[in-house]
Amino acid sequence: MKTLKNQIPAHSLSPEHSKLHREPAVKNIFGSHQLSQHLHIPGFEIYSSDGMLPSYSPSKSSFYRFGLLINGSLHIQIGLEHFNVTAGTVIFTAPGQVHAKSDVSDDLFGYYVLFEDTFLENLLPSTTLQQEFPFFDYSGIQVFQCVSEEINEMTELLNRINIEIREENTGRTKAIKMYLYLLLLVAKRSYEKQELSINRELSPVHHLVTRFHKLVAQHFLELRHVADYAKLLHVTPNYLNRTVKAVTNQTASDAINEMLVQEAKVLLRYTELSSAEIAYKLNFSEPSAFNHFFRKQTGNTPGDYRNTRPAERFPA
C-alpha cells in the first residue's frame, strides 16, 4: 500500500528541506540558506525572504513558524481565516495547521523562523509553547501588527541569530534558543499590550463566527456536523447556521466542507495515496462518496485535480 509522505502530510525540517520552499540558485548569505551542512542546527532554520518561493496552495508542516514582514504585502490563509498582510506584521502557525500563501508583492521583504516543538523545551520546563505563547494556539490571534520599536527589537534578535547560526562559536545552539525565546517574548508582550483576543472590537455575532472558524480549523477531521460545533459554542445548530450565513454568506456546513477540501487537496498534491485511500483516511464511507463530494466542492474529480495541476514543492 502506498503511504503518506511524512504522514498527513506535514513536512519536517531537514538539511534538504530548504529546497522545497526556496529557489536554490538565489544567492543569499542570511541564515540557513546555502549554509554548510555541518553548521545546520537540528530542529531549527531561519531565512530572509530573498529567494523564497512566492506562493503555495494549502499545505501543512510539522513545525512552528514565525514570520516578520518588514516591507511589501502578501495574502495568508490559516485554516478558514484570510489575512492581507502588510509591513510591520508578525505571522505564526503551529504544527498541523493548514495554511497557504499568495499575492506576494514585488517589494516584499521579511524574515521567517522554523523550529520543531522540542527545540525550546528546556526553556519551558513546566508549560507548552501554546500555553506560553497564545499566538501558537489555534484559539489565539496568529497574525497581528507590531509598533516600529518592537519590529526593530525583533529584527535585531533575528540578526543576532543569523550571526550565531553562520559562525562556529562556543554555545551557539544555546544562544540561538535564548534569542528565539526573547524574540517570541517580544511578540508576546506586544500581544498582551494590545490586549489581543477574538473578543476585541468584534460584535457578538462576528465573535461567534471567528470562534467557529477557529474550532473548525482545529477539529474538522473528527467533527463533521454543525451540531458538534454548536454544542462547543453553547448555541443551537440553527442559530449557528443563521449567524455564519449572515456574516460570511456561507453556511456553517460550507465552512466545514471547505476545510475538508483543503485537507483533500494537501493529500492529493503532496502524497501518492490513491483517491480511495484518501477517501477512507478522511472517513468517507466509500470512495464514490469522496469523489462526489470533491467534485461538488471544486468542479473537478480528485484525479483531475491531481493530474491537471503540476505538483508544487512543499512550502515552509
UniProtKB/TrEMBL annotation:
The keyword Manganese belongs to this UniProt entry's keyword annotation: no
Record-given protein name: Helix-turn-helix domain-containing protein
Keywords for the protein's UniProt record, in alphabetical order: DNA-binding, Transcription, Transcription regulation
Xref: SMART domains: HTH_ARAC
A Pfam family this chain is assigned to: AraC_binding
Molecular function terms from GO: DNA-binding transcription factor activity; sequence-specific DNA binding
Domain HTH araC/xylS-type: 210-308
